[in-house]
Amino acid sequence: MKKIKEQVEDYLNYCEKVRRMSPATMWTKRNILKRFVAGTGIRNLGELTNDIFNEWVKNELGRGVSARSINTYNATVLAMVRYCRGLGVAVPLKVTLVQKLKEGEVRRRFYTAAEIERVLEYADTETGLMIKIMFETGMRIAEITRMRVMDIDGRRIRFVGKGKKPREVYMRESTRRELFEYIMRRGLARCVWGDGLNGESPTVETVRKRLRRPFYAAGFDDFYPHALRHSFATDLQVRGASVAEIKEMIGHENIATTERYLHGFEGRLEELFDKYR
């Protein structure tokens, strides 16, 4: 029987070449299966029992991985098990005994300034700049992906946002200096995240994949890029900005939309009741 790493590679090749799964999906599957192999310690799928599988899930939950993420992990591993069984591999795991965890209410994610600092420790220069700019400006992933050198004027970034709406946002002076040094060092004249003088912008999928890596490394398994927009709005709220002010800075048409982005009072209800009641 093949070793577990070979079995994983066979399955991933099938997903990529036959099923033609997207790069983002492939990146997720690869990292989940890498985690699975390291966490179970099995040499091949012939050693995978329900006891080993359940112990792995228990350990992942103990690390703070959400039930939603665990269900994604399970679905990925079980898909590989079914694929290998189709090739004749004997896997003792009883799939019908693997229970889907109750996820509860889905909550929108946001990150504090301290958590962003932790993530930046795992990011390379370019990815770190993307994260900083998105957290400081509230730019969407498509907007940051298309960012051009000509859009930058000091601390101001001008661009056409969602709904073809012209917008301008501002980054911190320290980020501006870092970005300017990066552009000069790379000799960029067109696309900020391009490759050299005539570089083209990367795809949104490429940027999403790059952003995900440092968050994953920092222990945030449920990262999605739009959470940085929620983080931008919530950070402004924590610093004392009104909803109306946040609405203008984030570029919403409706204040009700902005309110859904604010999480600054989470975990502070007792403090607020004591203060006002």
Protein model, in words:
By secondary structure, the protein is mainly alpha-helical. Helix content is 55%, strand content 4%. It has 13 helices and three strands; from the N terminus they run αααααααβββαααααα. It has helices spanning 4-18, 23-40, 50-62, 67-86, 113-120, 125-137, 141-145, 173-186, 204-217, 227-238, 243-250, 255-259, 269-276; strands at 152-153, 156-160, 166-170. It has a three-stranded antiparallel beta sheet with strand order 1-2-3, with no helix packed on it. Helix 6 (125-137) crosses helix 10. The longest helix has 20 residues, at 67-86. It starts with a helix and ends with a helix. The model has no long low-confidence stretch (mean pLDDT 88).
Give the topology.
Blueprint (H helix, E strand, L loop, with lengths): L3 H15 L4 H18 L9 H13 L4 H20 L26 H8 L4 H13 L3 H5 L6 E2 L2 E5 L5 E5 L2 H14 L17 H14 L9 H12 L4 H8 L4 H5 L9 H8 L1
Antiparallel strand pairs: 1-2, 2-3
Helix pairs in contact: 1-2, 6-8, 6-9, 6-10, 10-11
Number of helices: 13
Structural class call reads mainly alpha
Percent of sequence in beta strands: under 5%
| Average pLDDT level | 88
Query: For the terminal residues, how far apart are their CA atoms?
Result: 67 Å
Unreliable residue stretches:
none
Count of DSSP E strands? 3
User: How are helices and strands ordered from N to C?
Assistant: HHHHHHHEEEHHHHHH
Q: What's the helical proportion of residues?
A: 55-70%
Strand order, sheet with most strands: 1-2-3
Radius of gyration: 22 Å
**Main pleated sheet:** 3 strands, antiparallel
Give the overall form: globular
